[in-house]
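Exercise 3.2. Students should predict the tertiary structure of the chain below and write it as structure tokens, then compare their answer with the key that follows.

Predict this chain's 3D structure.
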Amino acid sequence: MKILKRILLVAILIVVIIGCLLVYKGYEMYKDAVAKMDLETKVETIRQDEDFVKFDDLPDDYVTAVIDVEDHRFYDHNGIDIIAIGRALINDIKAMEIVEGGSTITQQLAKNMYFTQKQELVRKIAELFVTFDLEKKYSKEDIFELYVNTSYFGEGYYGIGQATRGYLNKEPKDMTLLECTLLAGIPNAPSVYAPTANPDLAVQRQKQVIKKMVKRGDLTEEQANELYEELE
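Answer key:
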């Protein structure tokens, strides 16, 4: 029994040491990233882009659709959604691979601003430090605005401005509800859901967005059915 306790203590110690090492490496990656360009400068650079779209110029339906499908507790958490992370961890363990990330909109913005899309544990930790900085220094509207302006929408379109002009030939503020559900779903997997590349998959993703909006109480079943009919 004493041997088992010692083995357990050693195992716990090893896990703690590895965890501390990963956090240290993540912090170093974060420091290196912001040393090249601090957060405030990075934000201003994004906002100066000619295709940048302000939060007030985004349709309410689009904002709602994105939050419902990407991070429905966006206005309630401080950048980290423990519930989503726990659910993702369980699903990843079941699948024995990373199938769900549990990242919030703020975490995705941190990744868009400073890091690659590759799934790496150290990068995820570095991303958390940027996430905390963003939540501390910027409002939720600022974070959302920056997120949709740095997201990739496929076909070479970066940001909601390029996406609406490229796919829809209109300004973001002029999107219909149906178009909002289309654009809200693409960044999850741009190469898969780009409507010009895979129209059928894009429609399937739209339907997922609509179902999420119904689930969150932001669309009625009647409204959803009308949208489904438009997609037929």
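Discussion points: The chain has two domains: 1-50+79-151, 164-232. DSSP finds twelve helices and no strands in the chain.
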